[in-house]
Amino acid sequence: MGLEIDLSGRVALVTGGSRGLGRADALTLARAGADVVIADIQIESDSGTEAERYGPMAQAARARGFVYSEATAREIGELGRRSAAVKCDVTDRDQVGETVRRIVEQFGSVDILVNNAGTLDHLAQLADQAPELWERDLRVNLTGSFNCAQAVWSHMKERGWGRIVNMASVAGTLGGFGQASYSATKAGLLGLTRTLALEGARLGITCNAIVPGIIGTEAFHFGNPEMNERMVRRTAMRRAGEPQDVANAIAFLCSDLAGYITGVGLNVSGGIELFTF
Ligand SMILES: NC(=O)c1ccc[n+]([C@@H]2O[C@H](COP(=O)([O-])OP(=O)(O)OC[C@H]3O[C@@H](n4cnc5c(N)ncnc54)[C@H](O)[C@@H]3O)[C@@H](O)[C@H]2O)c1
């Protein structure tokens, strides 16, 4: 038998799993054998009147119909795994606590946390960065990941096994033109990752970050086309990555195969950080 990523018997929580990378992560973890709960502010059966307050990307997703939380949970069910789509805002500690409590009650544990929920729609150079979107980005990308990690920590500690994967970005390692708030939150996540790795090491919990370059999700296509083209041109592989490229790396980091890997920021970037020419 070949070397295999086997997550059977594990229960995963993927935040922001309604579309894009989170959806690919959820499906891939399920294909590897895990039961997967998707937590997102957007689910199909929700009336959607709240999209307004979550920013332009949430409004576009609602208007254009790319909200797939429940559809993804159903797909996972068809793979023979347990799944659920939960409406949960990672900035709301009560909702996060309640989501984790219900997962433990219904599924028995939370072994894997993928902190994927994020905001990518605040694009403006410093003078024009909107203070309220700066605050929103900190709350969702950074505090949201902290909230979720803190909520699952004691369960993972009790079981002596856990995997936390944080979604950083090359905007956090290289800087992002017109992305002051986003870049600051993604750099912050790398600090959180290393700290949780240190504290989790003696508890059987690993914590790693994925550092994606440009991945062709709905959110990427929502961005400025000229900027996107320039970013592709400076990627050594001269193309955007696929959500599956990220999901494969996450599945590996969540498996026993990666048991001695913790505190890393793994570039999944086609070499955008290289001296491309
Ligand atoms: N696509 C890329 O090129 C790229 C590159 C680097 C990093 N990333 C990171 O990967 C992650 C996913 O990116 P994507 O391209 O799939 O983006 P996306 O906007 O398509 O997906 C983000 C998801 O998070 C959800 N979300 C937003 N705020 C939330 C909240 N408060 N609580 C719960 N869910 C919330 C959204 O509804 C959405 O389903 C993000 O953290 C992003 O920063 C993406």
Describe the structure.
The chain has ten helices and seven strands. With 277 residues, the protein is of the alpha/beta class. The chain has a single domain, classed as Rossmann fold. It has a seven-stranded parallel sheet, with helices on both faces. It binds nicotinamide-adenine-dinucleotide (NAD). Nicotinamide-adenine-dinucleotide binds at residues 15-16, 18-22, 40-42, 57-58, 89-91, 116-120, 140, 144, 167, 169, 212, 214-215, 217-220.
**CATH third-tier fold name:** Rossmann fold
Q: Record the strand order, biggest sheet.
A: 3-2-1-4-5-6-7
Which runs of at least 5 residues are low in confidence (pLDDT < 50)? none
In CATH's first tier, which class applies? Answer: Alpha Beta
Strand content: 5-15%
Taken from the alpha-carbon principal axes, the silhouette is globular
Structural class comes to alpha/beta
* Mean residue pLDDT: 96
End-to-end Cα distance, whole Å, is 41 Å
Helicity level, as a percent range?
Answer: 40-55%
CATH homology superfamily name = NAD(P)-binding Rossmann-like Domain
Topology, number of strands: 7
Q: How do the SSEs run, as a string of H and E?
A: EHEHHEHEHEHHEHHHE
Largest sheet: 7 strands, parallel
Assign the CATH architecture.
3-Layer(aba) Sandwich
Q: Mind telling me the C-alpha Rg?
A: 18 Å
Which ligands accompany this protein? nicotinamide-adenine-dinucleotide
Instruction: Please work out how many helical segments DSSP would assign.
Output: 10
Number of domains: 1
